[in-house]
Amino acid sequence: MTKTTFRMAAAQAAPVLFDKSASTEKACRLIAEAGKGGADIVAFGEAWLPGYPFWVEGGIKDLTWEASAVYLENAVIVGGPETDALCEAARAAGVDVVIGIAEKDPITEGAAYCTALTISRDGGILARHRKLKPTHAERIIWGDGDAVGLKAHARDYAKISALNCWEHQMMLPGYALAAQGTQVHAALWPGWEKIPRKEEYCWARQHLLSRAFASQAAAYVICVAGVRLEKHIPERWKPLGVWEHTGQSVIIDPRGEIIAGPVDGEELLYADGSLDIVRAAKAACDIAGHYSRPDIFRLLVDDRGRPAAEFASSSEK
Fold this sequence. Notes:
- Helices cover 23% and strands 23% of the residues.
- It contains six helices and 14 strands.
- The strands form three sheets. A six-stranded mixed sheet has the order 5-4-3-2-1-14.
């Protein structure tokens, strides 16, 4: 039976950079806290575990490759001890979890993907969605994703979905989720960025694009961002540059209005939602339903996974 109301949470916090074990432990504590706060779903920022690869914007140096090697060492294999711990935390807390991870390729162990991992309150993995196209310098460290996990998942309170950062700029991934009827969407971001040369915050696209998604899809959006201040960056890596992310997470209603936040620092941000409000917004504009034109436009999503190589058994004749 579907509930008509639910509670959403954004876990705005700083991971322990380059330390997947410590970051996992911190995430599990936050999941437990969200469960105690009555959340049905809690979301973390982009690549939260083990942190956003901030150094890729600093140009190529020998230290860049050293940082990338350590980052890859701390990337997470889905089905490994870190995701097992997250699944157990979700089950114990009774809350659905969407968390950004740097996902290591389980076969080559030489590639990483910016992945939104969705875990059910039953402790099972619902989906892993790899960022379709890393943005700008992110291509130094992350590979292209696929559409295997580009899905909306039916829960007892709503259909949920997730995208990473500038996937909200791409338009078509969002439409694919709207076409599946998403009602609560996790938009994962690295955080609000400071302009180093100015004592002011830049106008963050995380709010602009997240509000646009909410309005277009007629869905709640948990626009969740990470935190990374200079004090969180180990001394070894500071020569690569210090770019701070200060969070500014918000939760947005299905008409695109901010209903909670923004917040500074480390905090669990909550907001309550209602399917009645979702339905009212979709009744006005359902872009994949009565407000679509399938006679004119068609979108084909190839959600098949493709291995890098296929091997025929030597026993086959």
